[in-house]
Every structure is written in structure tokens, then in C-alpha cells.
Design brief:
CATH architecture: 3-Layer(aba) Sandwich
Bound molecules: coenzyme A
Structural class: alpha+beta
Distance between the termini: 23 Å
Strand order of the largest sheet: 2-3-4-5-6-1-7
Helix content: 10-25%
Largest sheet: 7 strands, mixed
CATH superfamily: Gcn5-related N-acetyltransferase (GNAT)
CATH topology: Aminopeptidase
Shape: globular
Order of helices and strands: EEHHEEEHEHE
Mean pLDDT: 84
CATH class: Alpha Beta
Number of helices: 4
Amino acid sequence: MSRNRPPFPCSNGAQRPPGHPPQWPYNKAMPPIVRFVRRLEARPAEWQHPAAHVRTYLGEQDIEPWLAIRNAAFAFLGGRPWTAADFRREFLAQPWWPAATLWFAEVGGDAPTHTSCNPDAPGRSRGLPVGTLLLAPAERPAGCAILRWLAVHPAWQRQGIARLLVRQAEMAAWDTGWHKIVAETHARWQAAVAMYTACGYTCHPAHSAL
Ligand SMILES: CC(C)(COP(=O)(O)OP(=O)(O)OC[C@H]1O[C@@H](n2cnc3c(N)ncnc32)[C@H](O)[C@@H]1OP(=O)(O)O)[C@@H](O)C(=O)NCCC(=O)NCCS
């Protein structure tokens, strides 16, 4: 691939990509958006992380941890940190808000069991949330899901946290009947591009048909 050309045609630089923060200077030239796609042929095998486990969003008490991860992971964008109001607008106010598929990767604490995913239940200890990912249905076509808001706190990057979250999302997608998974990112966000590639996703132009 030429170093001087973006890998794919650039989308409209003034358009905010889904799942990305409104403070981006959208009136300025933006890196090209690329779409990563993976078609699942079978249910992905569960993948155990040596130090982390995944749990779902539990309610209001998870807004601050989500913000801490988001603001640290996306600090490279500049702009103001997000607040609880941003979280409510981005997630809770949406008709499609899927609390069950907003995950946190936690280190320490007790992993969820088949009877409880609530780390605040008596006798269980709470871990430290270090990464997050949302899985949502795509508007179309049917059977397609979107990965959104993947972020890992910089102190925990390159330790397999994103890989763990993506695998969790893939298993849930398969169980829901979504066998194609899509994620959009910027071609210049090298960690995201490398991570999706490492997880078996193939890169396509942002506006290609799904
Ligand atoms: C992209 C991001 C989520 C990756 O999280 P992570 O937990 O560090 O990723 P993992 O440790 O699971 O990496 C899995 C594989 O992806 C690749 N990878 C991840 N980050 C990489 C980097 N910075 N450089 C090169 N390869 C990388 C590697 O192949 C890695 O496997 P390896 O460490 O065994 O070589 C994280 O860097 C992040 O939060 N970035 C800022 C926010 C962002 O860009 N989110 C995605 C928006 S779509």
C-alpha cells in the first residue's frame, strides 16, 4: 500500500462517524474511516484472560468507570473530557440502548458466575474496570452487529484486554443470531487497526455494502 495514499477513499470529513465523540474538529480534514468486518462461521471459543474477566453494565455506578476509561483512552483526540451527561445522551437516551451488551473488562475482583454477574452481591468483591466495549445491532442488514466504543485504559493496553472484550462480543453476537460483525475506525488509529486485524477482521471501504 502506498504511504502517500489513504488505504480507501476518504469519507466526508465533516461527518461525525458513529460512536465517536462530538468534540472532534469535524470541520477539518479527518483521517479516512475504514470498516472492519468479520463473518462468524461458528461460535467463537471462550477465551480466558490470565488476569481479567468480563461483566456487563450494572447501572448508574458504572457511568464513572466508563468515563474514566473513555477519557483516558481517547485523550489523544484532545477536547474536553466526557461527563455523565454525555454518557446519558450517547447511551441511556437511545431507544436501542442495550445495557446487557455494554461490557467491562475488569482486573481483580470476582468473575461473574452462572448465577450472578453482580460484583456488589454479598460475599463478592469488585474488580477494577480497565476496558469497555458495546455490541449493538446494525441498522441493516439483518444478522449484522456493530462493535462500538471499544476502549482500553492506557495503563492496561497491549495486555489482551481488547481481544478479550471482542471475543465476548463475538460469542454474544453468535448467540443472538448475528453472524457478521462490523467495526468502524480511523485508518490512522494504528492500535485499533492492528487490533482488529489481529482479531481476524478484514478491512473494507467505510461505505462498502455489508
Ligand atoms: C485499540 C485498543 C482498544 C486496543 O486495546 P488493547 O487491549 O491494547 O489490545 P490487545 O492487547 O487486546 O491487542 C490485541 C492485538 O492487537 C494488536 N495491537 C493492539 N494494540 C497495538 C498497538 N498499539 N500496536 C500494534 N499492535 C497492536 C496486537 O497484535 C495485539 O496482540 P499482541 O499484543 O499479542 O501483539 C486500545 O489501544 C485503545 O483503547 N485505543 C484508544 C481507543 C481506540 O482507538 N479505540 C478503538 C476505536 S474503534
